[in-house]
Design goal:
- The protein has one domain.
- With 356 residues, the chain is mainly alpha-helical.
- The longest helix has 41 residues.
- It is 79% helix and 0% strand.
- It is found in: Membrane.
- InterPro entries: EmrE-like, Sugar_P_trans_dom, TPT_transporter.
- It comes from Dissophora globulifera.
Amino acid sequence: MLGRDRPHPLQLSAGGTRPNKVDTSYSWLAVYFFLNLTLTIYNKAILSSFHFGYPWTLTGIHTLCSGIGAYIMGRMGYFTPAKLGEQENMVMLMFSFLYTLNIAISNVSLHEVSVAFHQVVRAMTPVFTIAISVMFLGKKYSGMTYLSLAPLLFGVYMATVGDYSYTAMGFFLTVLGTVLAATKTVVTNRIQVGRLQLHPLDLLLRMSPLAFVQTVIFSWMKGELEEVVSFCKEEMTTKLVLALLVNGIIAFFLNYVSFTANKKTSALTMTVAANVKQVLSIVVAVTVFNTKIGFLNGLGIIMTLIGGGCYSYVDLREKAMRMRPPTPAFPLASPNGPILSEQESEELLNVRISTQ
């Protein structure tokens, strides 16, 4: 009776906790893929159907809807905003600036390089993520992790093979944008799992309004804001307003899922997922928009998907090993197992003493 009432924490840890955590992480990644591809297709539809070619304004709508959505979720009691001091608020300001600057550098670099070159350099984001994590956070990665990234990076290169024209300034800005993207992903993870421990919606609530203001400023500096005002006076329709509203709502859920997946997995996993999403976008373009690709492009898509699967397998395996309970140095008697005799117990005790 006493043995039956005794708690067994090792059995509990090895039973339900480990699979649930792993399943939850990858289910969030699955939703992230779905929403990311949905938003990509929806953005393409808005640009082609309504001729709304204003990327800064579209980004501003995304950040505004994300802030409003996070505020509504907070009012409904889904999370409690943390009380931050002056230093933490400054961190939020710098993070929002990093978020906006990453978008700005990426947009500017596209004017100086070809799309294929831009995609290939951006595919190096996992490499920069590893470098930042190792140098500044002291993280360590296994040899299998490094090996699993090789087919992924080479696959993205083959999938985006094409015109690799670029200028010296374009090369610098593209690499800088890639470093900023890796830094943003690492910082996002640290804000949520580090000292601040912010809820994903709380982070979205604090970051989105700041990013919206900064996006409007960049739009004004680029001259896009004046064009949008003229467009709204002449060509704005109710259908376009509803389309932009739905677009913003999808962006809110995507940002929330992205932050949550980042918190439950890792910065490196998110950058790998972004690479796989990039190739899946090409697949969507082929199937939905009848985009033509060559043999190397198709081979690169297959290799990228295989590389993403290899990394997921390695990450899942190593995560399971880290969560596996330590094996006892000697066998423990089970509550429902056979009862040892006095001689067997004495022999087992002698073995334990002799090994110490």
